[in-house]
Amino acid sequence: MNWYIFFVKTGDELCVKDWLNNTFDRETLYSIVPKRIVPEKKNGKLLYVEKNLFPSYIFVKTVMDFSTYYLIKRNSKIIKMLNYLNKEDLTCHRTIAAHNKQSAVTTVDKEELYFKKIPEEEMAIILKLLNQEEEINFSKVYTIESKVYVESGPLKGLEGIIKKINKHTRRAKVLVSLMGDQRIIELGIELIEPVGSRELIM
């Protein structure tokens, strides 16, 4: 089974996720909508808000074939599957398609051509960040001599993807790859002081 992404109408992510998980048994197909908890100030009050990690995206784990694809597409709120989005993929797609016109094409060949899975290394990082509720909660972070350390939380062990932290917004800018594209996402953090030091995160 591999992970795939479907693009749906904004605001309908959870509705579609529930439909998928009720339509298919978990051993055949499982879907998630990754979320993040981030701090926001409203009317002078600090609130903790839940937001979709990738708005309009639903992650689906299944053995994808044409039959499964068309069953999924029965839901009118699902717009499309994310497939060939960059020039490299499009070039590869056209090259394979041209080659297949000259030779016999199996069903497997067609499925691999049309259904692009999320690379395992990319999905592994996303899954590592999520808790059992499919959320990314706060990480406890501190700095020593401008180097960022994570004491606990989802970013523990993933310090290399942290690009910037902001003590005022209490957020970390994190670089992740998704379907070959690099994206910056903001995750909530709890700022702490390192043991034996009063250095604050700048």
TrEMBL record:
GO BP: any one term: DNA-templated transcription elongation
InterPro entries: NGN-like_dom, NGN_dom_sf, NusG-like, Rib_uL2_dom2, Transcription_antiterm_LoaP, Translation_prot_SH3-like_sf
Domain NusG-like N-terminal: 1-83
Residues making up the signal peptide according to the UniProt record: none
A Pfam family matched in the record: NusG
Origin: domain of life: Bacteria
Residue ranges of coiled coil: none
Keyword field: Transcription, Transcription antitermination, Transcription regulation
CDD domains: NGN (cd08000)
PANTHER family for this protein: KOW MOTIF FAMILY PROTEIN, EXPRESSED (PTHR30265:SF4), RHO-INTERACTING TRANSCRIPTION TERMINATION FACTOR NUSG (PTHR30265)
Protein name per the record: NusG-like N-terminal domain-containing protein
Native organism: Paenibacillus riograndensis
